[in-house]
Design brief:
Layout lengths: L8 H8 L4 H13 L1 H18 L10 H12 L24 H56 L4 E7 L6 E8 L4 E8 L6 E9 L5 E6 L7 E6 L6 E10 L10 E6 L2
Bound molecules: zinc ion.
Zinc ion binds next to helix 3.
């Protein structure tokens, strides 16, 4: 076939595996060289796949069923054209000799469609399972965090330190809950929004030694910011402080102090 297939349903029939002989070879050789028709064949395959999924909006052209049935009746290669059995009035030759084709061809097509439907369903279930798994992991994470907050709040060793704004600095207020025994820390506060190239950084100032970073954060300004942090256990704090640092934070405080509170 040098020209494009003249009937649109040829693509559907080919995608269904219902074309045989010259018709099949003609489409195959033409599609290999014609990107337009290759595209139409890809669309037909999509239609057939949707058909297997019983999507009502995706029906193949109305001639497909008639041609498929006539081909099954004809039973012989190359006799599958509608024109040879127009109106269905003339029984095709070889019908009795090929009676099994009337059974096997529809069964084969049905099996192919069923296999395709199963494959699509399996893929859908795999995706659902993955989504459920991610969901469960997130819930476990939230539960774990809720437990840690509860433990922190109820532990006798937990201290609460209120942090106050410093003159000439962004306005805000915050408090830190800290358990030196476990190293668990929770920050909760409200601060003016930080400039885009800066970030706030919370520090634990120990009784001995250099300040320890206890979290880098951006202030949302409109709502309370809070985060939890696990520090090495056993560090006695002298104070907690928030400084303004270059975005990403620093290993030691370099910027101005915005909030500070002594650990009584
Ligand atoms: Zn073409």
């Amino acid at each position: 076939m040098n020209g494009h297939p003249t009937r649109e349903e040829d693509f559907d029939l080919y995608a269904l595996g219902a074309l045989e002989g010259d018709e099949k070879r003609a489409i195959e050789s033409h599609v290999a060289a014609c990107s337009g028709c290759a595209q139409k064949l890809a669309e037909a395959r999509g239609r057939i796949a949707l058909l297997a999924f019983a999507a009502p909006a995706a029906t193949p052209s109305p001639d497909v069923k008639a041609r498929l049935m006539s081909q099954i009746r004809a039973g012989k290669r190359g006799e599958a054209r509608v024109s040879t059995v127009s109106g269905g009035s003339e029984p095709a030759r070889g019908f009795f000799g090929r009676w099994w084709a009337g059974v096997l061809v529809p069964v084969g097509v049905a099996l192919a469609i069923a296999a395709l439907a199963l494959w699509i369903e399996n893929r859908r279930l795999d995706q659902q399972l993955a989504a459920l798994h991610a969901d469960m992991q997130q819930q476990q994470h939230q539960l774990q965090e809720a437990r840690e907050i509860a433990d922190l709040i109820t532990a006798r060793e937990t201290i609460i330190v209120h942090l106050a704004a410093q003159p000439g600095m962004p306005k805000g207020t915050a408090h830190v809950m800290y358990n030196a025994k476990t190293g668990m820390l929770m920050y909760e506060g409200q601060l003016d929004r930080n400039p885009g190239d800066k970030a706030y950084q919370l520090w634990l100032v120990p009784e001995h030694g250099a300040p320890i970073s206890a979290g880098v954060f951006n202030a949302s300004a409109t709502q309370t910011d809070h985060f939890m942090m696990k520090l090495p256990p056993g560090i006695a704090p002298k104070a907690f402080a928030v400084t303004l640092e270059p975005a990403g934070g620093r290993p030691e405080p370099t910027g101005p102090m915005v909030l500070v509170g002594a650990a009584a």
